[in-house]
Amino acid sequence: MTESRARLIERYAEERHAVTALLASRLVSPLITSGLTANQLKIILLITSDLAQTGRDLAEVLDVSPASVSTSVDRLVAMGYLSRASDAGDRRVTHLIPTERATRIHDQILEGHGAWEHYLEHMPVDDLDALVRGLASLRRVIAERIDPDPALPESE
């Protein structure tokens, strides 16, 4: 007999937590070793994820003043994480472009230094197939139900 939906969701949460705990050091390492502040990491993730493209976008999403964003962006440009490009249609608008260095930090944070792929190589093919089908189904459900203009969750 198949477990109830509620029990399967509960088991999924338990397994997700256990896997995250096992990989925590790999997932947290780029945050610690980057030398970036939490605010700088937020900005990099927002820009590399296309959730913000300008300083004004960042100020709005982060709910801070444009001046504080400007200071952080200046530092990230100087450090080689971002570059600036003028908007072809409106020279008053400056777009923030992630550099390869920013993209690498983004990928390390979100992908855990390739940890997932390493361990997937060792899974039985039938289990890997079920996992891929499950993730594809989850992606479809999220795509169908996600708010097209979501507000980011507030920081605690």
TrEMBL record:
SUPFAM superfamilies: Winged helix' DNA-binding domain (SSF46785). PROSITE patterns: HTH_MARR_1, HTH_MARR_2. SMART domains: HTH_MARR. Keywords: DNA-binding, Transcription, Transcription regulation. It comes from the Bacteria. Residues 2-140 form the HTH marR-type domain. This is MarR family transcriptional regulator. It comes from Leucobacter rhizosphaerae.
